[in-house]
Amino acid sequence: MTTIKNVVDLDDMFYESLSLGLAKKFADCIPRITNVTCEKRLPCEKAQVTAWESRHNIYLPDDMKRFYLSTDGFNFYWSYQYSPNDIRRVGHIHFPHLIQITLVRDNIDTILSSSPNTAVTIPPIIRQSNYIDSTSGYLNHLNLNSRSKIFELSTITDLAKVCLVYETPESSNPKIFLLEMGTFKWQFLADTFTEYLRMSIAHLGLPYWELCFSSCGLPSWTEQLFLLLAPHLLEKNENRRLKNIVCVNENPPYNVLDPAVFRTKPRCSRQSQKNRINN
């Protein structure tokens, strides 16, 4: 008979394996990281997965299906202690519940316009696009059309969306792309769902880590966190430092410096100093 303690232990082992031991890595190697939390979720039922596939007329890739049959999403987060009395949540690895994965076109109809060719009503998001496969380094071709299926996995404020892209509904190997909302450019992220999960863990769930692979680059305050906690991730991609810095309209997780500290004392002449010394 399986005891409650054994069930809890198995749950802990599963999430430790799923996160590749990230919590232990924090405890052993990176000081000041605290409040490391992994939210435990029930797995999806097979009927839920089948219903989702039927609704969208596609098949989930095998690794993604096995993930959701083990846990309905993933939520891992941690905080950083900037000072004894200042602890803020910084890292976050999040994969939504299966039911929350929806078609991108359903969510951004208001910002998609018609093609410049008035005879074509396909929005600009549906188009041919070249991208560099970061694994092989070769130029690949993304050919999207009206039959393509694009699903949103996460949103990075109003800058970009992480998308699961099926070029055709019959495709058995959808890929993960970053869609830049300002330009509708596609940036390749991963060949598989498993690879994208591992990339999230390798980047420690640092804020906006996907923008490392964008044309705009990281916000400056996020880059400072990378330099503080994982500088090696920037060293492998030095070319991203040449990109324009993005101004994100939100409060970054660090203290604001009061410019008053830079106010200088009134300067006095050397003659005045000599008079004071003589007196």
Write up this protein:
This is Knr4/Smi1-like domain-containing protein. The protein is an alpha+beta fold and 279 residues long. The chain has 9 helices and 10 strands. The strands form 3 sheets. Strands 4-7-8-9-10 form a 5-stranded antiparallel beta sheet. Strands 1-2-3 form a 3-stranded antiparallel beta sheet, with helices on one face. A two-stranded antiparallel sheet has the order 5-6. The chain is globular and about 55 Å long. The relative contact order is 0.10.
Tell me briefly what this model is:
It holds the Pfam family SMI1_KNR4. With 279 residues, the chain is α+β, with helices and mostly antiparallel strands.
Average pLDDT value? 76
Cα-to-Cα separation, first versus last residue: 93 Å
- Kindly state the percentage of residues in helix: 25-40%
Report the portion of residues in β strands. Answer: 15-25%
Structural shape = globular
Strand count, sense and closure of the main sheet?
Answer: 5 strands, antiparallel
| Sheet with most strands: strand arrangement | 4-7-8-9-10
What's the count of strands? 10
* Rg from Cα: 24 Å
